Amino acid sequence: ICKFFSLTETPEDYTIIVDEEGFKELPQSEHISVADATWLALNVVSGGGNASNSQPIGVTKIAKSVIAPLADHNISVFMLSTYQTDFILVRERDLPMVMHTLSSEFTLLRVVNGETVAAHDLGVTNGFVKPKLVPRPIIHPLSSPSNLFCVTSLDPDTLPSVATLLMDVMFYSGGPKEPGASSEDSSHIRFFSFSLIEGYISLVMDEQTTQRFPNNVLFTSASGELWKMVRIGGQPLGFDECGIVAQISEPLATADIPAYYISTFKFDHALVPEENIQSVIGALRTKSTAQ
């Protein structure tokens, strides 16, 4: 059974993240591009490692303690923020360096057959050079679509009642994948993210799409916050470049602005509270070499 499934639609493509069990279920197809590495999902939990009752930390809170140190050690990450938590995906081959980098600040645990056990340091200490900390200018273009987004969840028990609607939203309601084809407003983009991970469902969608769901099905934060998006990248970013997430998340952490962050196959997406978008764009642009 697939325990880690995420599908994100952008104007360019669908990005699917699945565990090995899920990957075996995917049909062989020349239309599916697969990143060349196997990835491991890390997440940071407060409260002793029991993910079910811990509060999400938020990408802002882990920017300095996790994301920046990994970037400083040239470890490329792929971020997936959900309603419940933030997953930092790292390549399996980078695990020794990841553990070395994070073990001084965190207790590292791994889940084996449903049990949480200590992850033993892989004993790699020789040959690691303390990285030089360098400023991190933003090197990719930024844009902010006009949509307002909601970060929501739903009870898995209610999934059957909205399954048809979900399928329609995910696959049939966008029209052809051409710029501006599905909307009068050229700066309005198609973006929908669905994750079902270890029994928890997370949905990120724009405000219009939430209105298609029945009342009281979607959980949102008590404040009912709406989020604006910053899209990172003009050309496909690829998987090898380090520090893209750090370039964006560090200035947000410094300004104490909460953020969700979703990487996809070609671009990155940061969501920040609606009222902060102008100051966020301003802060990021002052650090940018791409404008």
The number of E-state strands comes to 15
**Poorly predicted tracts of residues:** 48-56, 176-183
Total helix count?
A: 7
SSE pattern, N- to C-terminal: EEHEHEEHEEEEHEEHEEHEEH
Apparent shape: globular
Distance between the termini: 46 Å
Mean pLDDT: 83
GO cellular component, one term: cytosol
Main location: cytoplasm
GO biological process, one term: negative regulation of TORC1 signaling
Organism: Anabas testudineus (Climbing perch)
Task: Please give a structural write-up.
It is built from seven helices and 15 strands. Strands 2-1-10-11-9-12 form a six-stranded antiparallel β-sheet. A hairpin with a 4-residue loop joins strand 4 and strand 5. Helix 2 packs across helix 6. It starts with a strand and ends in a 5-residue tail after the last helix.
Q: Would you spell out the secondary-structure blueprint of this structure?
A:
Elements: E1 4-9, E2 14-18, H1 20-25, E3 39-43, H2 59-72, E4 77-81, E5 86-91, H3 95-102, E6 109-112, E7 115-118, E8 142-143, E9 149-154, H4 159-172, E10 192-197, E11 200-206, H5 207-210, E12 218-219, E13 227-232, H6 244-254, E14 260-263, E15 268-273, H7 277-286
Helix pairs in contact: 2-6
Task: Describe the structure using short key phrases.
Cytosolic arginine sensor for mTORC1 subunit 2; single chain; cytoplasm; 6-stranded antiparallel β-sheet; 291 residues; 4-stranded antiparallel β-sheet; CASTOR_ACT_dom; 25% strand
Structure summary:
The chain is an alpha+beta fold. Helices cover 23% and strands 25% of the residues.
